[in-house]
Write a structure and sequence with these properties.
Layout: H1 12-22, H2 26-35, H3 41-57, H4 61-78, H5 84-105
Helix pairs in contact: 1-2, 2-3, 3-4, 3-5, 4-5
Length: about 110
Amino acid sequence: RSFEEIPSFLDPWERYGLVLRRMGHFEKAIEIRQQSSSTNQNDLGVCYNNIGLMYEKMNNFTVACDFYQRAVAIADESLPRNHPASVRYASNLDRVKTIIGIRHFLNLSI
C-alpha cells in the first residue's frame, strides 16, 4: 500500500509509526507506537495488537504473544466477546501460540 493510504485522522505519531512499519523499520515503529499510546482502553488495545503484529513480523513470537495477551485482556474488559476487535485479537493470540507450540515441538528456537 502507498503512504497516501495512511489515514489522515491519526495523530502524527501514529502516522509516523505506520510509515516506519511499512518501510520495514519495525523496532523504531514499535518505539513510536508505545510513545503514542493513549489512556483510552480501546485505543490501548489497538496499540498493543499492532505492536504484537510488528513483533510477529520480526519472528519474535514470544514478545508478540505478550502484546496480544494484553490486547485480549483489554478487549475482554471493555468490548463484547463477539466484537470484531475482540475476535481479531484472540485470533492473533491463537495463531502465535500455535506457532510457538509448533516451533517448540520441532525444537526450533522461538
